[in-house]
Design the sequence.
């Protein structure tokens, strides 16, 4: 997985935030988190949805039965940064709940049906995280 991510990260940075392949044309960002145990910076390419006041990201992990590591890191240390296009922004992560989560998640599944497939593959509720500008 790390080789796959490394290739996407390199392509993203070499092409002003644009990549080809399965993510061509999709909104993609590079999320920088701090490892909950290691304290080391981690970089994760992921699709996002622009929402009022920030960006929503989805802890889908392709429909795996567990949340991705980046989600646990983000809950432990919610101050993050993200590369979007050619810029970097400082953000604070917040896990959504209830109607807010449902509204964002429904829109993501409608725009990118692969997320509905991920939902069908797992029994867990896929977390929706909003990244808002740090103050």
Sequence:
């Amino acid at each position: 997985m790390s080789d796959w991510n490394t290739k996407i990260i390199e392509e993203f940075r070499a092409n002003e935030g644009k990549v080809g392949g399965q993510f061509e044309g999709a909104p993609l960002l590079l999320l920088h988190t701090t490892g909950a145990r290691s304290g080391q910076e981690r970089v994760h390419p992921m699709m996002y949805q622009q929402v009022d006041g920030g960006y929503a990201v989805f802890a889908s992990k392709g429909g795996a039965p567990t949340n991705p590591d980046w989600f646990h890191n983000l809950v432990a240390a919610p101050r993050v940064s993200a590369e979007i296009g050619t810029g970097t922004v400082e953000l604070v992560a917040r896990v959504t709940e209830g109607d807010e989560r449902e509204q964002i998640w429904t829109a993501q599944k409608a725009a990118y049906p692969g997320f509905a497939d991920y939902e069908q593959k797992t029994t867990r509720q896929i977390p929706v995280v909003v990244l808002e500008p740090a103050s």
Remarks:
- Strands lie at 28-34, 41-47, 49-51, 54-58, 79-84, 87-95, 128-133.
- Residues 14 and 86 are 10 Å apart (CA to CA).
- The longest strand covers residues 87-95.
